[in-house]
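Hi all, posting the design record for the shared folder.

TITLE: backbone redesign
STEP: 1 of 1
STRUCTURE INPUT:
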């Protein structure tokens, strides 16, 4: 298993000792998921953390009418998990789905959580990662959802051209909280 990018991403948040890396790699496996395959289905316990080596993953829920609502998308070199479900030790409210064929490094929640108590440096990685990605990065998104128009949020999504090109129009509409027809109108207005 080529894990160089995985280790690089881990170490960018906090440098890990050789012993920590060895223990972590001992619980990791490389898995493949085909397009539209669920890594986690809502209502189930989150059993793994994932690192995306290749592919695109979506994180979504379904509303009372059965409509899909995408919360976020994850590209290569991203860490993915149903973090709230793991922390609360409850079934996930969200589905995690492969939007493209994916290769991931996955590691079991319980074994990883045990390593967090054993290795101080891994615990510091986890803290730094959560602070950066689930507090600092997420806060502007939450504010945007409350105060920005769908058109403004669409323009912000367009700034990440590599992600935008990989998404289907219904994914984008769902993420923006609008219908595909409304998205078509916004695109016409911009063009």
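Okay, here is what came back for every position:
SEQUENCE:
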């Amino acid at each position: 298993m080529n894990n160089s990018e995985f280790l690089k991403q881990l170490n960018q948040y906090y440098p890990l000792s050789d012993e920590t890396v060895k223990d972590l790699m001992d619980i990791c496996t490389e898995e493949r998921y085909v397009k539209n395959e669920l890594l986690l289905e809502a209502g189930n316990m989150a059993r793994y953390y994932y690192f995306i080596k290749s592919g695109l993953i979506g994180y979504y829920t379904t509303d009372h009418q059965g409509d899909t609502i995408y919360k976020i998308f994850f590209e290569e070199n991203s860490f993915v998990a149903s973090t709230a479900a793991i922390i609360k030790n409850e079934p996930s409210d969200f589905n995690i789905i492969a939007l493209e064929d994916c290769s991931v490094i996955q590691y079991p929640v319980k074994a990883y959580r045990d390593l967090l108590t054993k290795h101080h440096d891994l615990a510091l990685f986890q803290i730094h990662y959560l602070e950066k990605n689930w507090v600092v990065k997420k806060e502007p998104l939450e504010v945007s959802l409350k105060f920005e128009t769908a058109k403004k949020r669409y323009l912000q999504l367009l700034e990440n051209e590599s992600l935008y090109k990989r998404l289907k129009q219904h994914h984008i509409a769902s993420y923006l909280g609008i219908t595909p027809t409304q998205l078509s109108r916004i695109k016409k207005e911009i063009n």
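COMMENT: The chain has ten helices and eight strands.
Let me know if anyone wants the other runs.
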